[in-house]
Design goal:
CATH architecture: Beta Barrel
Structural class: mainly beta
Number of domains: 1
Strand content: over 45%
Order of helices and strands: HEEEEEEEEE
Number of strands: 9
CATH class: Mainly Beta
CATH topology: Porin
Length: about 140
């Protein structure tokens, strides 16, 4: 298991080194941090890791987001993904990123994401937080 996690980590880091990368923190009752990259004009895969819990309860999410609308200041997206360990199941995020400053690297976001848990039913998670883009010149 540890080898698999290390391999996945190094694969993600290698992949992100060649594209525009974004890191985020989502505050909610199930808070998490995310790392994503933009593929083309519309697709944004994101790896999310739960925070504020014990390591044995660490949850991972892998989400593929599609940008419905994008301009200089905001991005509206919808996605689909999977969640493992705590509340295993599907995740369906719908969110907005907003970059209000002149340099469009730091911004804010809000997201509503139903979690369709295999054994626990349906949970509607809402989150807000900050996002930082490592812009490439």
């Amino acid at each position: 298991m540890k080898k698999g996690i290390l391999l996945a980590f190094f694969s993600v880091v290698s992949f992100l080194a060649f594209s525009q990368t974004t890191v985020s923190f989502h505050q909610s009752n199930l808070p998490f941090i995310g790392v994503n990259t933009q593929l083309g004009e519309r697709w944004i895969p994101e790896l999310r890791v739960g925070t504020d819990n014990f390591v044995e309860n660490l949850s991972l999410e892998l989400v593929g987001n599609y940008m419905v609308k994008s301009d200089e200041d905001k991005q509206i997206y919808v996605g689909l993904g999977a969640r493992v360990n705590f509340l295993d199941g599907l995740v369906v995020p719908l969110g907005i990123n907003y970059y209000p400053f002149a340099k469009k690297d730091f911004g804010f976001h809000m997201e509503a994401a139903p979690i369709i848990a295999v054994n626990d039913g349906l949970l509607l998670r809402g989150s807000f937080g900050i996002r930082y883009r490592f812009l490439k010149e």
